[in-house]
Specification:
Layout lengths: L1 H22 L13 H25 L23 H12 L7 E5 L6 H14 L3 E6 L13 H12 L1 H13 L8 H21 L9 E5 L7 H18 L5 E6 L3 H7 L2 H4 L2 E5 L6 H19 L3 H5 L6 H11 L3 H11 L6 H9 L9 H4 L1 H17 L6 H13 L8 H7 L4 H7 L7 E2 L6 H5 L3 E2 L2 H8 L1 H4 L7
Parallel strand pairs: 1-4, 1-5, 2-3, 3-4
Antiparallel strand pairs: 6-7
Helix pairs in contact: 2-5, 2-6, 5-6, 5-7, 6-7, 7-8, 8-9, 11-13, 11-14, 13-14, 19-20
């Protein structure tokens, strides 16, 4: 019996000594059997309670709904199998490269180009490979996910709940500095994220920490509700990377090419640490969209109530698919939108496809119902641009430019120089009026001779159709 008691005492002492190592701040004292055990246990319980309270505060400050695995984002868009292979390879090559000089990758593209799908796919892949530190998917329609002030606390929360060794460090910081969660973004980024990672790196060198993820994915930065905050987030990330030179931490940021975001990325200090990937024809989106459509039509034949009948027909024709690919103008959102309509179990898919190809002609279904998601994006872009041009223009100022782009292209009025001359406007005025429409209109940025000769064009054919259709564009309608 005495031997058993001694063994239990030795086991208890070993447990308590291990806890000292875990928490690291308690003084080492020698223990006699039965002395001081309750005191230490109470101290450890107090520490746990403080950490639990700190975690609750951090959870309230964070946005748990913004992560790539959030229940709020159930069934999020992701890349369809066998598509986006080239661009995913380029991104993962950067993720897997050793100590790159460029610690930021900016993936930009127009609305509906598939940025969020790519961000989701990369997040899932890097999570499975233990490389993802944090993810935040902005959404302008969600009051919590459009708030940039929640970004750093969310990164810190995900860090604390992903790496056990990080939890104690972050909770101690929050407990000791009660104002940290209400402090500036820069201070939070330094004290909660980078300082924690620095301490983890030291632990890794001593083999106390087995692995530290290093990729942060921030999707849809343009959907953060405050344009100034959008730029501020980029600056805080870059400034902290420059000043603290932490271990290998990288940021994948996706957004539309809004002027304020582009201007921030192109500033000298940030430009030097950034890789730029643009979702354009370089990645041959038409091929990927063709693959996607073929796969979706095959699934439709298996799952639709008329699937057996459809499988016996050579439907859709190759020409039908080519027409849909052409109408997509490289935008996956268009292809996904029309497929959602065509797959509706309440309708005959053959008739629905005919409606789409004929743009609603001869159908009782209003055309605006076919493109609700797409039109919502276009309305937001135009409303946002008009709101930002107060003081030097209005939508009425843009209408003549759009009319030229839509209806006078055959008159060889292509370039910014030609358009400004035709409309008796200064070139800088044309640039300024279109500055916040880079998501849907290509506008040469500089004022040199080469840029003057470059064409102003709609980046998406569906946008032109939207503008000319009164039932869809409403107050933004462009009449011939």
């Amino acid at each position: 019996m005495a031997s058993d008691a001694n063994n239990r005492s030795l086991a208890l002492r070993q447990t308590l000594n291990n806890r000292r190592e875990e928490y690291g701040t308690l003084e080492r004292t020698s223990y006699n059997r039965g002395e001081g055990d309750d005191t230490l246990e109470k101290t450890l319980n107090d520490r746990r309670e403080k950490n639990a309270a700190a975690l609750r505060r951090l959870e309230q400050a964070a946005c748990l709904e913004a992560g790539h695995q959030s229940v709020e984002r159930s069934d999020p868009p992701r890349c369809h199998p066998e598509t986006r292979i080239a661009i995913l390879n380029d991104i993962m090559s950067w993720v897997n490269s050793e100590n790159p000089n460029e610690r930021i990758l900016w993936l930009s593209g127009p609305p509906g180009a598939g940025k969020s799908s790519i961000a989701q796919t990369v997040s899932e892949k890097c999570h499975n490979e233990s490389k993802l530190l944090s993810s935040f998917f902005f959404s302008r329609m969600d009051a919590r996910r459009n708030n940039g002030n929640r970004l750093v606390s969310t990164i810190a929360y995900q860090l604390a709940t992903t790496i056990p060794e990080a939890n104690e460090i972050i909770m101690k910081q929050i407990s000791s500095d009660i104002s940290i969660l209400g402090s500036t973004m820069a201070k939070q980024m330094t004290n909660l994220v980078f300082s924690t990672l620095g301490q983890l790196e030291k632990g890794a060198k001593k083999s106390q920490v087995s692995h530290i993820p290093y990729l942060v994915v921030i999707d849809g930065l343009d959907e953060c509700r405050n344009p100034n905050m959008q730029s501020h987030i980029i600056k805080v990330i870059s400034d902290t990377l420059i000043s603290l030179k932490p271990f290998d931490l990288r940021f994948l940021i996706t957004s539309r090419p809004e002027s304020n975001i582009a201007d921030t990325f192109y500033s000298k200090s940030i430009h030097e640490m950034t890789i730029y990937i643009v979702l354009d024809n370089h990645y041959n989106p038409d091929k990927d969209i063709h693959t996607y459509l073929q796969s979706e039509f095959s699934a439709l034949k298996r799952e639709h109530v008329l699937g057996t009948l459809l499988s016996s027909e050579a439907w859709p024709s190759p020409e039908d698919i080519d027409t849909l690919v052409g109408s997509s103008s490289g935008q996956f959102i268009y292809a996904a939108t029309v497929m959602q309509y065509i797959k509706d179990q309440r309708r005959d898919p053959r008739e629905s496809l005919s409606v789409v190809i004929n743009n609603g002609a001869g159908s009782e279904i209003p055309r605006d119902s076919l493109y609700t998601d797409l039109d919502t994006r276009y309305h937001y872009i135009l409303s946002h641009a008009v709101a930002r041009m107060r003081g030097y223009g209005s939508y009425d100022s843009i209408i003549p430019i759009f009319q030229v782009l839509l209806f006078a292209f055959s008159k060889d009025i292509h370039s910014i120089k030609d358009i400004s001359t035709f409309l008796a406007m200064e070139q800088d005025q044309v640039r300024r009026l279109l500055a916040d429409l880079h998501s849907v209109v290509f506008v040469p940025i500089s004022s040199d001779a080469i840029s003057e000769s470059q064409n102003i064009i709609f980046l998406q054919a569906p946008f032109g159709g939207f503008l000319m259709d009164l039932s869809r564009s409403g107050k933004f309608h462009i009449a011939k």
